[in-house]
């Protein structure tokens, strides 16, 4: 694919460049690898209460958003909490990592690689010019974040060796785990120099040209999957709020039951070392994997483009074994990667996988898909 001619600048939101949503300025806070300490969780909860709408919203890239940020001081408070290590790079710190790595399953332990990449990324001035949509990933071999559409991904094939993927496709370039960070940054640097107006690697005519010269193995197509990130995993507990929306009080509960947390790309939270499942349940944080089957964009009234209050409509749906994403318009914000039922608001109802359905029959339409 050739690079499209962009007629507008990349407007991916951050903290200094917020998005002007219908419910007020939206600020996105990057959490490389989804990792966040209990202390920083408390800082986010306080910012949401004092400066925003009172909630912390999880994103499909393992980051968080604060909505309705109408009062000043957010950047100063996040900087003090260590959540903004580089103002110049804050929008490009988009890094996924297998959230259960080193806890449950996987071939290699990729914990720490996202943070190491973040440090090196912020130390390279030229990479501050990457588009805000550019995405790095470290997959521990299970194939979870490899399927999330990263521009460049290191995927383990043995405990100490991995292959580099560009836009989800294996390149055959095998790189030791110890060199994974440098390899991904080398690709990002080459993209920054060659991208023209492209925002993503998939938009380039020849992505392989970004790789250094040298021998490569024959590319291998490996399966991707999403492992459940909810429930008990040895010495960890995974939970999820409804539609990825946490109250400040719920965020503080997360901080109280574990020293750190990992926000996943599926809007769940893994809590290493957590033991108090009862307190999490009492706070309304589900450990049932079915809670992640139905996702939804923010909808009305938070988004002026939305044609419906999609979260109110989606809340009436009962999970039944089929992933579905309910969106308020054709942009389909927040839609998950991988197979899912496409439910888009349109003309007083929803178009469910292409068939218009009135709101009153939405649940029935999904049941029909589950049984088909």
UniProtKB/TrEMBL annotation:
Pfam families: NIR_SIR_ferr (PF03460). Gene3D superfamilies: 3.90.480.20, Sulfite Reductase Hemoprotein, domain 1. SUPFAM superfamilies: Nitrite and sulphite reductase 4Fe-4S domain-like, Nitrite/Sulfite reductase N-terminal domain-like. It comes from the Bacteria. Residues 27-71 form the Nitrite/Sulfite reductase ferredoxin-like domain. The lineage of its organism: Bacteria, Bacillati, Actinomycetota, Actinomycetes, Pseudonocardiales. GO terms for molecular function: 4 iron, 4 sulfur cluster binding; metal ion binding; oxidoreductase activity. Keywords: 4Fe-4S, Heme, Iron, Iron-sulfur, Metal-binding, Oxidoreductase. This is Precorrin-3B synthase. The keyword Protein transport does not apply. The keyword Ion transport does not apply.
